[in-house]
Amino acid sequence: MRRVQTIAELRAAIAEARGRGQRIGFVPTMGYLHEGHLSLIDHVRRHCDFTVLSIFVNPLQFGPREDLAAYPRDFDRDAALAEARGADLIFHPDAHEMYPAGPPRVTLVAPELSDHLCGRYRSGHFEGVLTVVAKLFNLVQPDVAVFGQKDFQQSVIVRSMVRDLDFPIRIEVAPIVRESDGLAMSSRNVYLDADQRTRALALHRGLRAAVRAFEAGQRDATMLLDAIHTEINSTPGVELQYANLVDPESLEDRPQARSGDVLAVAAFLGKTRLIDNEILP
Fold it and tell me: Which end of the chain lies in a sparser environment, N or C, as judged by fewer CB atoms within 10 Å?
C-alpha cells in the first residue's frame, strides 16, 4: 500500500493505475478509522481494482466551537488497518497541501438540502464538506466513491452535487455498521466515558422503537417521533438536539411516514455530539 501526502504524488499514482486499465474506487475519511470505515473499503474493493482512501481532517467543516483541534488522529494506526483491509493507496495531505493559499475563495453550497437536520445547527458545515469532497473528486477522479449511511444528510448532499454538476462518478451508500449492542460506530465514540457509552444506546433504542411502531401500522410522524423523544428524554445525561422524520431525497420533514423515509436523530452526551438514523422498511 502506498502512502502519499502531496497532490503531485497522488496524481502520479492515479495515472499509473489508469495506465494499467484499473477501475478507481475512493473512500474519503477524516481518519481514526473504525469498522464502519473499513466496511467502505470492502465495498469499494467489490466494485473496483484500485482502492484509494483519503485521510484529511478538513478544517472547513468545523465551526469555531467544534472539536477540530481535539479530533482524534492516529495515522500509523489508520494506515495499518487500511492496508490489512486491502487499500492500495492512502492520500494523507495536510491543510497547507489542500489549501495552500488559506481557506478557498470558491466554495460549494446546497442551501435547500443543508438547512435541515445537522445543517440547521452547524452553520457552514456542509459548505465545507461539499468543497473538500469536490476537490478530492477532482484529484482522485474515481469511478466509484462510497459514503456511509450514518452521515445520511452528507450522502444525500454529495449525491445531489454529483448529479447536478455532472461528475462522472457513481456514489454508493453503505449501511451503518454498529457495535454488538447497537451503537452506531463513530470516531467520536472515543470521547465517551463508560457511563456515557451506556447512555448513548438510547439513540438506537429510540429509533428502533419508532421503527417498531411504523411496522405495527403507525404512520403519524408525531407519534413516531414521540417514541424517540420518550426513550432519549428518559435517559439522564443525553440531551436530544433533534429527532426528525424526513424525505430521503429532499430531507424535508414528513407529516406522514412511508417506506423509505428516514428517522434521524442527533444528541449530546456531555460535549460529544452523536448522530444516528434508520430508514423505514
Answer: C
Residue 260 has pLDDT above 90, yes or no: yes
Backbone torsions φ then ψ of 29, nearest 5 degrees = -140, 170
Angle between helices 35-47 and 75-85 (to 10 degrees): 40
Q: What are 183-221's pLDDT values in tens digits? A: 999 999 999 999 999 999 999 999 999 999 999 999 999
Q: Do 221 and 268 belong to one domain?
A: yes
Mind spelling out the 3-state secondary structure of 77-144? HHHHHHHHHCCCEEECCCHHHHCCCCCCCCCCCCHHHHCCHHHHHCCCHHHHHHHHHHHHHHHHCCCE
Which tens digit of pLDDT belongs to each residue from 121-133?
999 999 999 999 9
Let me know whether 131 and 31 are in one domain.
yes
Look up 37 and say whether it is catalytic.
yes
Q: Of the listed 37, 92, 116, 204, which one is catalytic?
A: 37
2-30 average pLDDT score: 98
Q: Are residues 20 and 89 in the same domain?
A: yes
pLDDT exceeds 90 at position 65: no
- Measured distance between the N- and C-terminal CA atoms of the chain, rounded to whole angstroms: 39
Grid cell listed for 145: 466513491
Mean pLDDT value of segment 131-159: 98
Amino acid letter for position 20: R
Mean pLDDT across the stretch 139-162?
Answer: 98
Q: Residue 247, Cα to own-chain centre: how many angstroms?
A: 18
Residue 246 lies in domain:
187-279
